[in-house]
Amino acid sequence: MDYxxxxxxxxxxxxxxxxxxxxxxxxxxxFMTRDFIHLGYELITHPLSGSVxxxxxxxxxxxxxxxxxxxxxxxxxxxxxxxxESAIKKVEQFKKNHIFREYPKSVLIDYQTIDFxxxxxxxxxx
Amino acid sequence: xxxxxGKILIDDVKFGDKIEVNDGVLTVxxxxxIEEVSEDSRIxxxxxxxxxxxxxxxxxxxxxxxxxxxxxxxxxxIFPGVLGGEEIVGLGRTHALKGVxxxxxxxxxxxxxxxxxxSGPGADYTPFSSLNNIVVTCEVDNDLAQSEYEEVxxxxxxxxxxxxxxxxxxxxxxxxxxxxxxxFPEAIAEYPNLxxxxxxYMLQTQGLLHDTYVYGVDAKQILPTLISPTEVMDxxxxxxxxxxxxxxxxxxxxxxxxxxxxxxxxxGEEYNFMGVIITNENVTLADKERSSNYVVKLAEQxxxxxxxxxxxxxxxxDADLIMNCAKLEDKGIKTVLTTDEYAxxxxxxxxxxxxxxxxxxxxxxxxxxxxxxxxxxxxxxGHQKFADVIAGGFDGSLNxxxxxxxxxxxxxxxxxxxxxxNLTAREY
Amino acid sequence: xxxxxxxxxNQFFGQIGGEEKAHISPQIEDGPIGPGNGINAGLxxxxxxxxxxxxxxxYFNENAEDAKAEIKEVLEEVExxxxxxxxxxxxxxxxxxxxxxxxxxxxxxxxxxxxxxYPENPGYExxxxxAYMIETSNSAAGMREAIPNMVKLIKSYVKKDGxxxxxxxxxxxPRGLRKNMFTExxxxxxxxxxxxxxxxxxxxxxEYPMPNFDRVAPVDPIEDLANTKVALVTSGxxxxxxxxxxxxxxxxxKYGEYKITExxxxxxxxxxxxxxxxxxxxxLPVDVLKDLESEGVIGELHEIYYSTVGNGTAVASSKVFAQxxxxxxxxxxxxxxxxxxx
Lengths: 126, 428, 342
Fold this sequence. Notes:
Chain B is of the alpha/beta class. Helix content of chain B is 20%, strand content 33%.
């Protein structure tokens, strides 16, 4: 399958068979997703999935689809651009009020699990 | 489908020898209740405590709130497909213990959330501070997966509510309300001159801790479908949504869906309330497109002229809300949206993650990022240490004097998007 | 309580001079000056303008950091209860200065600000979060209404102890600030009532107006670029050497029409001009398009380009410019335009 997952979630990286673009930060996930969309990739899952607010949950996994035809024709999906740009704005907003702290490892694992299950819920329906 | 909803008004709850209702006082045998709901072998310990309006009590982290109800007459049972069988509900008679909430708490994940303060400034933000709450705290083996713990906790709540609800079976209600949902040809014929109005009921369906069940079916796997308002009152929709305390729809709010209730108020006078379309909020854009297309199709099949659309959650569901709105408006079906906002603590950011100029009628339940300082309480039921890692809490939110400063998104039901509460926001 | 007020005005209303004095740095005077006299008289016991800061519009916009530092010093010393700025009407640079002062007072010093300007003044759009801004007409002819409106708002501010009501009831323009409140009726009831009004065609007020949309639907892609005549249009301020049409560095009131061979420098005041002046192709890519033309990728590059300055320029002005430019381009047989911004 021509799906790729852009993620900064280590649990996703080691748990799924799809090709993974692994990022070190949430910002990087957002910007890389945006760049892929501009290259003609199709956005499959919503970048603001999950009710735990971005930044508070440090992990995010987003599925894109590599559609050779679109990529060749450089077809741009404006709706996807709109979605990722608003998501980036929301991340910026939540960053503003967030004071960085070290989460205990168990909490990090919980966040990873939640992000992973949100991703799986998306993968299950494609 | 005709449902008589008998209300038994309860103004106090206490522990005693047996479960009974006398003069508005509900007595519960604590040991018996624990025994009734503890049969799951995965439960390690389970405790029940009471929290009453005005008490200096904080309940944290709350997973769900459920109103005890019992099926008195008619097919099926409360919470069909979950506890009851597969019979269709929404017919006959149901009794509800009004003024009582069964509250579940539990340490399912480390960042859990959900505050109910029974007094003080926090009490103003949650509708559940006015209930006599029977709080079930349940612990499981540490090694149990989060998904299993969530399921255990969810089922314990339903079982407790059902068991307590049974006490209302033989009682004479203080008040009876009758709701009727007629077959469509009859419904149309009854008020041929009124506009046909419906309700698009969006359910949170993104994955673990973000799920909603309809007759026990995980709603992310459904196509949008029709449901009778009376089925909702019998518990056909239950919450498995534990995240985003302020705007998740607890089972209590599903049972008492205020939009359904208020749409009935003017039914037959201002419009013809035809029914409810339930739909989901999945994470893939393809699912969103399909579900919103299907909502429009159902609305057109019913010949609806206008709908109210309610949202559950933030971010991803904003996209579903806007798609539903834009596609319905494109077909000439007028929409009113109910949502809440994440405009930042300063109120200056854009409230939703999506927008359309077609959404010209929006009701908002307020800005969930507003902060509030909650005084310390004499008693904490649950786990206060979570205030620090709670959604909307932040470092130092558990202050030294015992007060906590949180965004109201940490408070259960603070910005409920079904319009259950009175909080709202306006531009200044 | 009588408020102690500091009033910010520009060189013109400060009775120092017109454009020729726009370069003056902040001057501090005791008591009210110019429009401040009317405001002060209207306020009576509610408050008093104790100091007036007069600053040239060019000085403020071109030396923002210095100007703000000087004004900050005054405000810190006087410690006023309220800062007034303007009215600025539709004067773009004055409006931007009033907004800049508002940002400084409100954000850094926690002093509330009341201002007044025309809704299309870029100072409103940019700084509306920081001040209660009264709507004025687009010229100083509106002073007669502006002053009593400002006085009314200040009095209301005093009476309500700073807790002003919503924009419509108080008469200021919306600040884009979402504020929570409890209402009498629950949300579902309000939704049903709104639905009834909407289906009956009655007037209703949405509780959350969607953000302003000024989106342009993308046109169909060009199918045959090799036979397309392409023009360049920019809001990056590229003009011939010496800026012969005097396109303003901000809040532009005009645009220029030039030959692509005449590019010289930028008139733009909103970014560091060094690199654009070194090579204007960085803003208006004539060089690359010439290459594409000779490679046959595009049919032809139009020999005329259009340029204005986007810095604080009112949307309404931009629309007028664009309509005129588009018409001329169509008449010249141009089929596609590349817009560059900075």
